[in-house]
Amino acid sequence: MKDAFYKFLNNSISRHFLTPRYLILFVSNQCWMKCGHCWFSEEWKKDNLKDDSLSFDELERLSDSVNKLLFLSITGGEAFGRDDIPEVVNLFTRDGKTQRYQIPTSGYLTSKIISNTEKILSQNPGIPFRVDVSLDGNMEIHDKIRNLKGCFSNALETIKELNKIKKKIPYFDVGVITTISNQNQEIVEEISDIVNSVHPDGEWMVNLVRGNTRDPESGKVKLENYNKAQDIINKRIKDGTFKGHSGHLSAKWLTAKNSVRRKVINDIVLDKKEGGACSAGSIAGVIYADGSVYPCEMLDISFGNLRDFDFNLSELWNTREAVELRNRIQDTRCICTQECFLSTSLLIQPQLWPQLIYERLRH
Question: Is 202 helix (H, G, I), strand (E, B) or coil?
Fold first, then answer.
């Protein structure tokens, strides 16, 4: 009964909105780093990305086919590695198409990130925008994970400079993301102290390593080490020092959502949460740089490629194959710890809403 309901719900959502409301868009396959904990490896790209990356003109055609977006994550690779990233952003923010958008970054090339962030903000006044910088350890461990000397210091400098912009622009937010892997799981408290020293007035997002990582050992994480971050954040919420997200009216709800999400991840790892009831392929979706469209980052089955549908995303999103794949997600009770899709799935899992409200009232 539950599977049938969620199949009906997700396919109804897809037919109604025609295109995803929450979109993860890869605009580059290239990255400044080769992080051990990352699943977006050379091997994965070789096996799954079959065509050249979309040109700017093709990205424009894609933007024309996308309906209203509640949230757009422009990622890679390293999105800030593109010289035309402000222009790419503008494709998707024009005419009020996107309500809120974000770019995650390693924070490596500070001056390039800052100059492009300032340009993006000046060209898109009033639209909530967030840049999330990865910080995965102290200097030794962070640089080791990312296989690039000096990237820790650069990331800290980028966070500091972005926060200067945040103080001047009310619709801009800065986040720090830490991915817990076997390489940094023993220093969660130290990472928290580092984050708090450079980013005391914003959100610290803690992710759990996922997928087939570049370093196969990365996934060997003790759950209690991941949960240390939740304990630290809870303590800071209690004493009033955890500020969380800002920059738009729903910001505090996002901070509350992140807290609920960490608890859900804990339950998933402990096999206490039933699968299915997932919004992948209906509310949320992924488009890779070669134009291939997927319901989720963790599924290696594609809906198809935009180039084969003349860049008509709504047609691709609602093919018979897409319906069958959405149904398969529910039939197999697919479940994972991919944070973005856990977030959108909260919208269709009312049993979690009381927890969400409780967390919101705490902030």
Answer: coil
Q: Name the helix (H) or strand (E) containing 300.
A: none
First to last CA, the chain: 36
pTM for the model stands at 0.96
Measured CA to CA, the distance from residue 219 to residue 183 in angstroms comes to: 9
pLDDT digit string, tens, across residues 18-46 = 999 999 999 999 898 999 999 998 888 88
Kindly report the number of other CB atoms within 10 A of residue 240's CB atom.
8
Q: How far is Cα 300 from Cα 283, in angstroms, rounded to an integer?
A: 18
Which residue(s) pair with 345 in the sheet? none
In tens, the pLDDT along 169-216 reads 999 999 999 999 999 999 999 999 999 999 999 999 999 999 999 999
Q: What are phi and psi of 213, to 5 degrees?
A: -80, 160
**Angle made by CA atoms 23, 28, 32, in degrees to the nearest 5:** 125
Indicate the SS3 state at residue 299: coil
